[in-house]
Amino acid sequence: MLDVIYGTDRFQIQEHIKRIENEHRGQHGDFDLVKIDMASKEFHIDQLEEAVMTFSLFGGNKLVVFSHRDKEQKKAPEAELIQLLERSSLEVRIVIIFDKKPLAKTKIKKFLDKHAQNHVLDTVDVGLINQRIRDAIKAQNIQIQEAAIQLLVQRIENDLVQLESELNKLSVLGRPITKEDVNVLVSRPFESEMFKLSNAILDRNVSEAFALYQDFLELKMDPLSLIGLIAFSLRRIYQVSALYEAHLMANTISEILEISSKQAAFLIRNQIRDSRSVLMLLNMLAEIDQNVKLGKIDQYIAFELFLLQIKK
């Protein structure tokens, strides 16, 4: 049996997998549970093949939960994945979690639509998230300032799995939690901070860019790594901007760049810029990257000079 879960909310995914586990246990009794994640550095498609092709060591059923990552899809090519699923043992139930739904025209999407039970997890209502956060705080009997709750909500970005971890960390203090406690102990969401930094650079907002740069330094992110991440973000913005300037619509852009139409529409709505100015920034970053790697300039000085130059 094959189940497919489409979603990005870790709490929802965990809850859904628990329901599948309970259902499977009710039908087949005890079973082996194998979890495989493409994001792991050790992942190889042979791991998945071994998991779905072999019987349980104890003679019972097996449940394989495979987390498919869109950014890592080269590790499990479409054709090989389909072939594996077609040949999998009847004694193995497979659950695949997609963080991004494959495009409708792809072979894997057509295969999954035909052979899998699909579960699409909707985005959780923000009001419900806030209530769950307050319920979790009350359940742990934690005293916390309202301002601290608001900052906590911002930091965890609706991730209820992270909430549990952060509340355990805060509860150790053994006293009422302040906003400053949350600011110090709960990390800023990485992807949101990167989005803000890219926008600050695009908008030539030097003060905002420097403030965010300092935040990344606190997270032990070195400037050279930061340059690579910013360049990756700007490259996508450049591609979308150039295609949009050529009068292409979001659906066409998504097909050309092989991204979802929602992502293309989001970039057009929030980050589209003059393609020539984005290309200039990319060239500046490429030059800095090369000079740092050649030992011509210190990476910290190079990146800080770049932030000062973007105002010009």
Structural class: alpha/beta
Q: What is the second-level CATH architecture of the largest domain?
A: Up-down Bundle
Query: Can you give the mean pLDDT?
Result: 86
CATH third-level topology of the largest domain = Zinc Finger, Delta Prime, domain 3
Structure notes:
The protein is an alpha/beta fold and 312 residues long. The protein folds into 3 domains: 2-120, P-loop containing nucleotide triphosphate hydrolases (Rossmann fold, 3-Layer(aba) Sandwich), CATH 3.40.50; 126-185, Helicase, Ruva Protein, domain 3, CATH 1.10.8; 190-311, Zinc Finger, Delta Prime, domain 3, CATH 1.20.272.10. 60% of the residues lie in helices and 10% in strands. The chain is built from 15 helices and 5 strands. The chain has helices at 10-28, 45-53, 78-87, 107-115, 126-139, 146-156, 160-171, 179-185, 190-202, 206-218, 223-245, 250-257, 261-270, 275-293, 299-309; strands at residues 2-6, 31-37, 61-68, 92-98, 117-120. Strands 2-3-4-1-5 form a 5-stranded parallel sheet, sandwiched between helices. Strand 3 (61-68), helix 3 and strand 4 (92-98) form a beta-alpha-beta unit. Helix 9 (190-202) runs antiparallel to helix 10 (206-218). The longest helix is centred in the last third of the chain and has 23 residues, at 223-245. The protein is globular.
